[in-house]
Amino acid sequence: xxxxxxxxxxxxxLPPGTLVHIGERMAEKVAVTLIxxxxxxxxxxxxxxxxxxxxxxxxxxxxxxxxxxxxxxELVESLGSCFGLHPLHLEDILNTGGRPKIEDxxxxxxxxxxxxxxxxxxxxxxxxxxxxxxxxxxxxxxQEEYGDVFxxxxxxxxxxxxxxxxxxxxxxxxxxxxxxxxxxxxVMETVGEAIEDMEEVVMGRPGRETIHVIHKLKxxxxxxxxxIHPLREVISDLERGESDLIRQTTEVHFRDVYDHVIQVMDxxxxxxxxxxxxxxxxxxxxxxxxxxxxxxxxxxxxxxxxLTFLAGVYGMxxxxxxxxxxxxxxxxxxxxxxxxAGMMLAVFKKKKWL
Amino acid sequence: xxxxxxxxxxxxxLPPGTLVHIGERMAEKVAVTLIxxxxxxxxxxxxxxxxxxxxxxxxxxxxxxxxxxxxxxELVESLGSCFGLHPLHLEDILNTGGRPKIEDxxxxxxxxxxxxxxxxxxxxxxxxxxxxxxxxxxxxxxQEEYGDVFxxxxxxxxxxxxxxxxxxxxxxxxxxxxxxxxxxxxVMETVGEAIEDMEEVVMGRPGRETIHVIHKLKxxxxxxxxxIHPLREVISDLERGESDLIRQTTEVHFRDVYDHVIQVMDxxxxxxxxxxxxxxxxxxxxxxxxxxxxxxxxxxxxxxxxLTFLAGVYGMxxxxxxxxxxxxxxxxxxxxxxxxAGMMLAVFKKKKWL
Amino acid sequence: xxxxxxxxxxxxxLPPGTLVHIGERMAEKVAVTLIxxxxxxxxxxxxxxxxxxxxxxxxxxxxxxxxxxxxxxELVESLGSCFGLHPLHLEDILNTGGRPKIEDxxxxxxxxxxxxxxxxxxxxxxxxxxxxxxxxxxxxxxQEEYGDVFxxxxxxxxxxxxxxxxxxxxxxxxxxxxxxxxxxxxVMETVGEAIEDMEEVVMGRPGRETIHVIHKLKxxxxxxxxxIHPLREVISDLERGESDLIRQTTEVHFRDVYDHVIQVMDxxxxxxxxxxxxxxxxxxxxxxxxxxxxxxxxxxxxxxxxLTFLAGVYGMxxxxxxxxxxxxxxxxxxxxxxxxAGMMLAVFKKKKWL
Amino acid sequence: xxxxxxxxxxxxxLPPGTLVHIGERMAEKVAVTLIxxxxxxxxxxxxxxxxxxxxxxxxxxxxxxxxxxxxxxELVESLGSCFGLHPLHLEDILNTGGRPKIEDxxxxxxxxxxxxxxxxxxxxxxxxxxxxxxxxxxxxxxQEEYGDVFxxxxxxxxxxxxxxxxxxxxxxxxxxxxxxxxxxxxVMETVGEAIEDMEEVVMGRPGRETIHVIHKLKxxxxxxxxxIHPLREVISDLERGESDLIRQTTEVHFRDVYDHVIQVMDxxxxxxxxxxxxxxxxxxxxxxxxxxxxxxxxxxxxxxxxLTFLAGVYGMxxxxxxxxxxxxxxxxxxxxxxxxAGMMLAVFKKKKWL
Amino acid sequence: xxxxxxxxxxxxxLPPGTLVHIGERMAEKVAVTLIxxxxxxxxxxxxxxxxxxxxxxxxxxxxxxxxxxxxxxELVESLGSCFGLHPLHLEDILNTGGRPKIEDxxxxxxxxxxxxxxxxxxxxxxxxxxxxxxxxxxxxxxQEEYGDVFxxxxxxxxxxxxxxxxxxxxxxxxxxxxxxxxxxxxVMETVGEAIEDMEEVVMGRPGRETIHVIHKLKxxxxxxxxxIHPLREVISDLERGESDLIRQTTEVHFRDVYDHVIQVMDxxxxxxxxxxxxxxxxxxxxxxxxxxxxxxxxxxxxxxxxLTFLAGVYGMxxxxxxxxxxxxxxxxxxxxxxxxAGMMLAVFKKKKWL
Lengths: 354, 354, 354, 354, 354
Hints:
Five copies of one chain form a homopentamer. With 354 residues, the first copy, chain A, is of the alpha+beta class. Chain A has two domains: 2-283, CorA soluble domain-like (Beta Polymerase, domain 2), CATH 3.30.460; 291-350, Methane Monooxygenase Hydroxylase, Chain G, domain 1 (Up-down Bundle). Helices cover 51% and strands 14% of the residues of chain A. Chain A has a seven-stranded mixed sheet, sandwiched between helices. In chain A, a hairpin with a 6-residue loop joins strand 5 and strand 6. The radius of gyration of chain A is 34 Å and the shape is elongated. The mean pLDDT of chain A is 89. Chains in contact: A-B, A-E, B-C, C-D, D-E.
């Protein structure tokens, strides 16, 4: 559950615009890397002092600054003032509890989204807060931790493969967002397989722990929905190309990403329906089991309780109890008992209880 | 459940635009067939080399190229470059996990939809990924497997019946889509009959396996919804005729297809309501059954437990137990027992338990 | 359930535009009647040959052609070619499984709707497929069976009462649609009374068959919704008067019909809420009953089981069992038994089980 | 339930425009009263003959004609023809089963709404059909019964207090509608208190009748929703001031009424959520109770059934049953019994059943 | 529950525009404070006579008048007439049962919203009615009680920190609203932690009181939704900047607040989903528990009831009962008993009941 709540108390009572990192510190040290490229050259280096970034802001080459780790608010602030970012947007970058959003400001676009991954024990789905600042010739990406989702983009740049070197910052941003969204499918696949497994369990022999697994899966879906749903509108805004920063040739690519997001949402809805269907099956299987148990109890009781009474009767110590002295009383008792039991069984058979 | 998830792992880490066939290989060999016709002539042949298609692109005759089998990505790629298809659209054609969509690009329209059919054992509903590229004078259809849904269109062309020979590529596309949508009704009919059968079972004597069948039917509906729902918007786009490739005279036909899709969706909603209604009836029938079973147990127990106690009392071996010596004790015991049982039965009768 | 599915298999594999009657043949023979009138004259006759209709198409008098019975596709086809109806619209007229729709074509409007009635045993709600073709000076109505819903319109024309003789074909169409919609209220009233009856049963002493009746009522509502809901949009289109064929003075009348449809839909929603509320009450009444039954069982068992044990103890045949020889053992046994039972009853009283 | 259905059979088969009063006759005699005022004078009188109203139609003074009782259709008809009301609107006025609506006609606005009140035994919520015809200088109100909701408006006019005397007919209409809507809050308060009472019962000791009360409350909410919901759109139309009859200064007042309606709807939604929450609590309280009852049964049974068996064993009459002759057998029996019972209790304690 | 209903009876029958304080009197005495500032000076004082405010209305300095306590209707009225507030708006200010709304009037904007806080025992969420009147150079805030949510704004003004001194009344209003909305996050955090706690309980060992806590949490969510939901539209209106009183530079700030409100609503939805998921888990845990209990009962009964019968048989006093005299009868009895019990246990093991 902890993933649903981010402590905001740290910020209580502070005026708006005060930069506070909300969330857990996930990286030891903040790592800032820069990749600067155009069709001819490529330069990669680690940034120690933020001011090194400044010259790259207005060059015609494409610069990608990646910040991994958000707890160093001063670093973020000075980067922000370098690139003229609005203080409220810096707050959005630092607030890891915030939801995906898009802000089309003066000369940059801020895109906030969630990177999803499976924790190492591969059992829990977690989300990482990711912000992209898309400028004319630069993209700044802020992430909580240095991860490998962006590796395929780095490779593309290094290899000079694909159209990337001929395209602008908007195409770079597209590649980054596409990498994040593509990763959603992997997460969805894992969830889907878990649901598939459960389906067989529920249709077979559900046990007590079944409900816990269904509960967890539902919980995962709620978390995924919360993380992904607002992205739809964000990408839709990018795709409609209302900003000058997104060129028309890139719009078709964002439209493709948009389709992927829609497909993820669709799949989430389908999964939710499947789980709810499964829940119904589980509950009625509980009811069915209950019926079966009580049926066994009832069959045994209704057969033996009258017979026990009868045995009790002839166990009575009345002085004048004529049957006790009859010679065939005992065999007759057994005959009667068996007949009664048989009748009961016949009735149950007719009621389809057996 | 497997039909709900398509393995996307194959594509993990690849840059966008890389063509990968996602899904199972359903045809042994990719079969490419061409039908070229106008009001005067008709030519049908199997294509071995994709370049044979090239001359048909710009002729005034209508050409229909049908590709059955999607695993030969190179073939799709070269066909794509022949006809100038966008790489992202080729990805859509190959990704059998994608959802129905429409893309109105430079000089062609891409329509992606799902063909539905019953598997041979007629028990499972499956979907096939179908893509249509509608150009000025040509239609390219990509399907996973060579099927017979399009046979009626082939016949129409061969017989020269109907308006088809006087009409353009848009009308051909309409006929293909119409054939697919008409087939939905057959699938719906099968589902409808299964629901009808279940209704009788649930209202009659539902058993343990009933929930499994309801579960399967609900699962089918979820699958159908997922496959058909997005088509609504797709056809609506075609029908509004925003593209030059769809002529006004064809719009009324697409409107008809649109109505059919709406009707299928309507029927799906109705089926879902019927199933949910059925589920309620099933669950309360379980409760009713439970009540009945427990009632039998209670009636037997409440009648015989006190009597057994009484019999137990007179089975006690106390030296001073006056009743034991009474002469009429035994008949009185029976009288009392029968009276008690009768009273209980009267009470149950009054409670309407009997 | 059969009313929810219409066999479409008959049409499988046929090209679009092929006329096939989908549905059951409800009338023995197709009856075509004509009423032609203006403010001065009125002419009524039965039509044998469809070509007799032709001259009435372009006269300034209002002609109402009523076709009862849909299985004679040739007749419909020739009537269609007389009046220039689009083949797809003829299909709509013949497909009794189709949903209500409106088509505003070149020089006529096609309105498809459902006439609702109670079957003769007054237990089942059924729907009849009705299509109206509204032209400049004529209205053609296609129904499955000759019924008496339109009698009030026929009377109005014959009596020359009302504004009908001064008005045009649009007003005639309004009268026909209004007659159909007014009839919905009668059907709704019947359903409403059945719901009212059930409400008393559920609040009183619901039995096993209660769920069957609720199920049937819900099923009826689903059917009504399916039949009426799309009409809303149809009438809204007519009322907004986008076609030249509907004059402004008639729009206020269609607005009135629209209000009636909305009211029927509103009532359907209310009924659905009432039924779902009833279902909740029914289910918790089942639970309550169960509690009551089990309570009786528990009270009897917990009182007598310990006592039976005690009786069993003093029925043991141990040689050294001191109590057996005590003089007051038996009365003490009874005292203890009664005291135990009394204590149990007191506990149950405190728990409010009694 | 009767309040949900109005008999419409009376109207079956009649042509549109035929005036029939649908609903119960609530007033003995139709009472028509007139208040005519401007800033200088005020005149109040009872109207015997409808034609007395005629002169007031076109005077510059504001005239308010109130008709209490709807069964005299002739009176309504002649009033209608006096003021030029459309026959369909007269039908709306007389059909007490109709829903709230607004009709902006040539030179008047018809507003239909529902007045809500508690029946005298204060247990049932009922609705009265109210129609307002708002003209340039007059307002005609039709109600089913003479009530006291409008008294505060009458007082305002008589006292000459407030802005009323300087304002027009639209302000008078606002005051009447405001009086009706304000009264909704009183009804809501009563319902709210009943819900509050139930909440305590459900959280405390719900009994068998609890579900009946919840059912009734839900039923009330359905009725309130049905009566009030359509009003939202009605007032919204008035507030947007599309008619010339509503002056701009009055719009801000209608906006206030609109806010009140929204608030009532909001509260209805909140109540519905609270009731559904309560229902969940009630159902799980039933389950909990069931568990508790069965737990008691199980504890008693599992403790005493084995012991009874043991006692039965030593009650057997086998000739060779060695234990019977042991000297300490009886005390050992008790020790074993108590030990077994203690063990069972310990197990139950561990399972938290105790 | 009391928080859901505000007594409106006090107002019954009064004409619109009559000022009545609806709600509880929360402050002993009404406290009116004034802060007047521009970039150069700052003046703070307590207001005794409302007329002292008048001169501040039209000065170019920014004046913030805070009214804590709403029961002094005369004070509110005279303040209203000082600043030209519409009587209906004064009603909105005094009606603490009203919902959040925005009114864009002649020369001021009225914003009504709810301040949320935890009651001192920190167990209950309560709401305070807050109204802001935003004029050209002044903001008047009406609250029910003097609280500390605005303290951070007061500090900002006093310290001259931030942009506040250079900005206008719209920025002051933004700060006040932002303080209120930021506080929502604290309330949400408390609720979230309570939900987290419950999740562990439900997944662990839910008891009888569990449902009470879930019920309370749901109730809290309903209350939060009711209080916050309408605010969304209110802030959206402010952010779209349709009023001249909100300058463009402030719009980006309101957009930020809007995002916060959306996030709160999102979180509420997520919480609701989590609770509903939890409820499902709780109910099926009840069913599971029931199954377990009944299973124990059934196992014990089905094992011992037949054995007890057998013991009863050999406790019978028939004279001719051959087994009684067999030498090995007793050990055989035990063997049979143990064998029967073993068989039953084996069956239960196979059924997975053990």
